[in-house]
GntR family transcriptional regulator
Amino acid sequence: MATNDVVTTPDRAPGRQPLPAEVASHVRELIFSGKVRPGEFLRIEPITEALGVSSTPVREGLLALRGEGLVRLVPRKGFVVATFTRQDVRDLFWAQAQLSARLAVRAARKITPEQITRLEALLDGYQEAVEAGAEERVSSWGHAFHREINLAADSRRLALLLGSVVKHLPNRFYAAIDGQVAATCTEHPLLLDALRRHQAARAGSLMEHHILAGADRLIGVLEERGLWLGQET
């Protein structure tokens, strides 16, 4: 199947996030990748240089992360990365898994042949990006696959709730996590098969496992990088 005959390449989506949201996403990924550690101060200048923005959206983005509990504002000193635990990571992924699983159940009951065709095309695009070693495109195609399932569920309120959870998680470096891409290449086709057969319970179970397993792999990477040395779980 020719992917571009069915869907637009997801990494060509027009427009950018609002600048503070882009800053928050960038710093969130620095934190969850272990590139910055709890207790480290986040200097504004390197962030402005990395993203090509002024200091105002950087401060606004960091304040948003303060609201998420990922950073603390130390008076007269600046923003510092807050402590977070393995359980914090698991809790975020658990919430995502429950909502995503429910959406997958509903999608399996309602999905149309046209939506199945789009999911097939997205799987093709994902596989092509994997074979090309294009990590950014791998993430984009993977995100688009999940978004198509959420649209098929036709449950706007539930999708909005999921969006409020997902924004607390990083979304652009999963392709670099050992085992994540290989697992997705196996798990996404299984999800598609369950949706195609309208197997609602199976689709929900597969989706929940898919997301929770991703949490375990992320925690494993952070452990290998020594993020929690000397800390309890």
Summary: The chain has two domains: 19-81, 86-224.
